[in-house]
Amino acid sequence: MKQTLLLFLFLLFSHYIIAQETGIDSSRVLPEALVTAFGKGRGTVSGGSIVRVIQMSDADRYNKSSLVHGFNAVAGVRMEERSPGSYRLNIRGSSLRSPFGVRNVKVYWNNIPITDPGGNTYFNQFAFNNFSHIEIFKGPAGSMYGAGTGGLVLMHSFGQPWKAGADVEYITGSYGLQNVFTSFRWGQKENKNTLSYSHNESDGYRNHTNMRRDNFSWSTQLSLSDKQKLEGHLLYNNMYYQTPGGLTLAEFNNNPRQARPAAGAFPSAQNAKAAIEQKNLVAGITHQYQFSKTFSHTTSLYGAFSQIKNPTFRNYERRNEPHFGGRSQFEFGKEWNRNKILLIAGGELQQGYFNTQVSKNKNGNPDTLQTNDDINYTTYSIFAQADWELNTNWIVTAGVSINKSSVRFSRLNRYPVISQKRTYQNELSPRISLLKKISADITVFASVAKGFSPPTIAELLPSTGVISTFLEAEQGINYEFGGRLKLFKGKLQLEATAFYFKLNNALVVRKDSANADYYVNAGDTRQKGLEISIDYFHSFRNSSLFDHLSVRTAQSIYDFSYGNFQKDAINYSGKKLPSVPGFTGSLLADLQLRKGAYINSTYYHASRIWLNDANTVETKAYDLLGARIGWKFRVSKTIRLNIYAGADNLLDEVYSLGNDINAAAGRYYNVAPARNYYAGVGLGLQ
After folding, report:
1. Which of 123, 237, 443, 461 is the most buried (most CB within 10 A)?
2. How confident is the model over 403-428, as a mean pLDDT?
3. 607: Cβ–Cβ under 8 A, 6 or more apart, which residues?
4. Is the distance from CB of 618 to CB of 659 less than 8 angstroms?
């Protein structure tokens, strides 16, 4: 943290000295991204919150095997990867209830819900070239987006500016890394297409961590008339990755690269052939109709299917998960004098017909059937929002949604068939915010939002096989205050947000003696935090060897604890929440030379993390350093080349990028890769 502060002060001083010189292009400042969250085409500070945007160029500083590093450069966000291909997305502690996968966060791709009706998101189905930019909203977003107290992620395929062309890129590196990315863009501004394919594979750093993923996507945007626009989107993913399992501290210290060994009656991860074979298909269309300058309507319809095969050391699970749904909203906007009003009303409906079969695992193949469950899950949300901009200086936003979720389990392997049903209904999720533009460079805001999150299918039907319809939905109120300050004509930007979130009926994961997951409502949690982002951009004189310098730092300071939480005879009240570091900080610095050479450097720090509710086991803090050097140049007017090489974890830290929380027998540890290297070449046609 000291290094970050010193560098920041140095840059301020350097800018003051250099800015006195002539020949500087003062028009080059930090770009202002427009966001669509909550129906606004405004800047990233609007609607009483800060929405961070990850551009493809921001993530294009690593080996592109995953989006982990790109997300971890955002204050308040922590993406974890227990093993290659296995992700958890932690927004302000939202992964407390996620031993694996992404839960309690709502994800959309081009206005299509990627989060299924049961509350699970297969984030690993996305590759680096499936998007142009990603919006991240932190905190309850239920007033327009339904269930989820963690946050909102909106992924977009079409960005601005859009240009026809093609890109091909190949990356190779340590531990058998092989990445191939291709994308093609054709058409004009109003009728455009983008087609992408990617292949990722790696042998992995740990034993039994092979990963392979093939990904295909197609997006089209057609202008049917002056008033109508139609979009179509298709995403297919086929991946396989091995799961090595958690280690005890003794095993971790002895050989952190080993897979989980045999223990008691359970085989090793290798003998069980523990892995996940995953296929995902998503297809959707979006129709927009502009009735007039003030009134419009947008509707998206989609269908999706996921197939999962998951042999573990305990059993063999097979899941088939077809689901479909849609989202529709009307917008009315009007301007008069220096005032604007935007009214939004609509709804979202999702329906899933899932089947989960669990069998005995015999050397990586399904054996005797243990359970066979049909799962019928329906969820809907009806929402309305009013957004009023007064005198161009004040923005008042008020929204509310009413939500209902209904799930029915039918256990088919029992006769007579056992059915259990649970409904979570009349869940109100209001949000109100106030924003004040003190000047063109100073903005402050405050908001209050109520969020809720019913148990996901993975929590209602955990790996113990016990249907848990007794679980209650989480509910909480989030209070937030923050602001943004721009200095030096927009070259320096500071954003800060303080929040307090009180969550009731918090869902937390437990492990039984066989290390199978189950869940309990843990009373209440109290989550206080401060998030700070600093972005700096400096362009050098025209006569300089250097073109520009970009520096970004993000810091999160958290105090998350249980309020009143009693489990059996143990009182955890006042204990710190596991899985959430008290402090994380990132520092990204990019130096671009005029002749095309560039240097990217990345630093990330995470403080210690508690691994259980009792706060008796913790990880040590760690520091990650990465760097990349490259050369971008044009071979001709239409052909450009990018050659680069880089390294991650230059300090060779022994650390975990995703621990197993509250693990039985102390199996908390999953080691992340040691120092590793990569090199790549990219060819672009335009």
Report:
1. 461
2. 92
3. 581, 582, 583, 584, 621
4. no
Closest CA to 348 of 301, 280, 385: 301
Phi-psi region of 545 (alpha: psi -120 to 50; beta: other; left: phi over 0): alpha
Is the per-residue pLDDT at 517 higher than 60? yes
pLDDT at 46: 63
Tokens of 443: 């903005």
Does residue 256 have a pLDDT over 90?
Answer: yes
Contact 476, 140 (CB under 8 A): yes
- Overall pTM > 0.85: yes
Check residue 76 and report its DSSP letter: T
Structural domains in the chain, sorted by start: 45-685 (2.40.170.20)
Q: Which residue has the tokens 């109290």?
A: 526
pLDDT in tens, 454-465: 999 988 988 888
Q: Is the pLDDT of residue 17 over 50?
A: no
Distance, CA of 523 to CA of 567 (rounded, Å):
9
What single string gives the DSSP state of each residue in 536-601? EEEEPPTTSSEEEEEEEEEEEEEEEEESS-EETTEE-TTPBPTT--SEEEEEEEEEEETTSEEEEE
* Confidence at residue 20, expressed as pLDDT on a 0 to 100 scale: 41
Let me know: does 80 contact 87? Beta carbons within 8 Å.
yes
3-state secondary structure 271-315: CCCCEEEEEEEEEEEEEEEECCCCEEEEEEEEEEEEEEEEECCCC
pLDDT at 565: 85
At 26 the pLDDT is 43
Residue in this structure with the two tokens 């689901």, named with its chain if needed: 323
Residue 283 pLDDT greater than 60, yes or no: yes
Specify the DSSP class assigned to residue 42: B
What is the number of H-type helices and E-type strands within the chain? 6, 37
